[in-house]
Amino acid sequence: MLNNDEIEALEDILFADPWGEESLDFFGLHGVVCASVVGPQTLDAAEIFRLATGQESVAPDDVPEVFARLTDQLAQGLAHSLDMGQSLELPEPEDGDPMNALENWCAGFVDTFLEHEEAWLEADEAETAELMVPMLTLSGLFDDEDFRKAREDDKVAQQMADAIPDTLTDLYLQFHAPD
After folding, report:
1. Does 98 sit behind a cis peptide bond, omega within 30 degrees of 0 on the bond before it?
2. Measuring CA to CA, how many Å separate 118 from each of 113, 114, 125, 164?
3. Torsional sign, CA 18, 24, 54, 5
4. Second label for 39, Cα 20 to 30 Å away, from 74, 121, 158, 170?
5. Are 140 and 104 in contact (CB under 8 A)?
6. CB burial string 53-79: b at 16+ within 10 A, e below
7. How far apart are CA 122 and CA 129, in angstroms?
8. What distance in Å separates the CA atoms of residue 3 and residue 56, rounded to the nearest whole number?
9. C-alpha 125: how far from its chain's center?
């Protein structure tokens, strides 16, 4: 995991001009990196930077070195935890609204899923779709009535939030376990 100074360095990059208004916060970035780790395709630093900053395209040379290094460090830490059989812990805000942080994390994760949806659904579409429900619901990206009702029901929303670490392990195993 990253320390507070490293997280701050990433957010300084994310909120910088010219993409600051379109960028994800650290929670959303963590979701992007997590999806890259658990999903079928590992994203390079330029793709992570593009998704995190909301840009149409990013050349590899345009990715700040510290961003590439810290997102790689984060990805390696997440993969190591999963390889050791540990559940992933999602970042939580030191202050503020934990459900807002979770929504941002889910939005980053879902954006990454949607970018490569075909690859995600190729292995086992029904299983992947079922596993994605908590993240899709809590992301706030969809105005579907069922998703909205689940988000508005504190008990259901908390159950979905609590299910995410195990869901991430299941997704990781689906895409990365030996046959």
Report:
1. no
2. 9, 8, 9, 21
3. positive
4. 158
5. no
6. beeeebeeeebeeebbebbeebbeebb
7. 11
8. 30
9. 20
Task: Please tell me the distance from the alpha carbon of residue 99 to that of residue 92, in angstroms, as a whole number.
Answer: 9
Question: Token digits for 170?
Answer: 């299941």
Give the model confidence (pLDDT) of 105-147 as tens digits.
Answer: 999 999 999 999 999 999 899 999 999 999 999 999 998 999 9
pTM: 0.95
What would the two tokens of residue 162 be? 């609590």
Is the sign of the CA dihedral 34, 37, 41, 43 positive or negative? positive
> Whose CA is closest to 166, among 135, 139, 144, 137?
135
Classify 41 as helix, strand or coil.
coil
CB-based contact 39:32 (threshold 8 Å)? no
Closest CA to 171 of 123, 137, 139: 123
Residues 6+ apart with CB under 8 A from 133: 160
Kindly report, residue by residue over 10-68, the tens digit of the pLDDT: 999 999 988 878 899 999 999 999 999 999 999 999 999 999 999 999 888 999 999 99
**3-class DSSP assignment, residue 125:** helix
Positive/negative CA dihedral, 60, 63, 64, 70 = negative
The whole-angstrom separation of Cα 77 and Cα 179 is 24
